[in-house]
Amino acid sequence: MEKRNIYEQTFKVYSYFVDDNRKLILSNLMYFMQEAAWAHANNNQFGWHFLQTKNMFWALVKLHIHIERMPEWNESIHLKTWGKNPELIIYPRDFEIFDEEGNRIIAATSAWVILNKENFKPQKVTPENETNMILDKHAIQGKIPKIPKIDIPSSNIYHRVLHSDIDMNKHVNNTRYLMWILDEYGHDFHQQHVLKTCNIHFISQAKYGDEYSIVKKQTAAHSYISSIFSRQGNTEVCRVALDWKSNN
Questions:
Q1: Which terminus, N or C, of the chain has the lesser number of Cβ atoms within 10 Å?
Q2: What CA–CA distances, in Å, run from 193 to 20, 175, 176, 230, 242?
Q3: Tally of CB atoms within 10 A around 128
Q4: Would you say the C-alpha torsion 98, 102, 105, 110 has a positive or negative sign?
Q5: Rg (CA), the chain
Q6: Interacting residues of 142 by C-beta distance below 8 A, sequence separation 6+
Q7: Average pLDDT for residues 139-146, to the nearest whole number?
Q8: Residues 83-132 pLDDT 10s
Q9: What is the set of domains in the chain, with CATH numbers?
């Protein structure tokens, strides 16, 4: 029964997936996890194509990642994912990633919703073969932590959402938010630190032509909270908490 509930996939870490230190880029890790999640849902006739017939789509709302180490260039990693019991309109999903020796190097838990394409309101949908998708197993124990809100200053530098930021659901791809935030740390910071945990909450959606700004606040020696907000209505779009470790 467990094998039916867990979806497994192997990914090769090619050169175009890594940074200048030959480590897998976090946004590409998110791509791997979401591809596996969509494949699992598709295998159970509850994926993108099924929801399109109902004018709906999957949306990731929270993702909490624990990293022992990032995979490196030319490694093959084995990913496992499974859904957990729905919580009202929230569909939880966990992930584990193992190296070639079978060591677990990354664990993650996430929360998803199904949105109506017209009004973006959450929907409650129960698949016919739901028992094939859920499992009472936790990659990370406990709830995804809340992220404190940080103040938004009145004067900011704004950037415009570009065509390359948009995904097939016609809004900014969720990995783009993380890429924007990581770039805010600067090259020197990334040479001196490695990421240990990432907690990302998607609050609203940005679309083509919107203008956005990023605010960052240090909360501990190696911990930061970043917020992306849109100039249109001064709406917060995404909030991210990152914990780092010095590699010196």
A1: C
A2: 13, 20, 21, 29, 11
A3: 9
A4: positive
A5: 18
A6: none
A7: 95
A8: 998 888 999 999 999 999 999 999 999 999 998 888 888 888 877 666 66
A9: 1-144 (3.10.129.10), 147-248 (3.10.129.10)
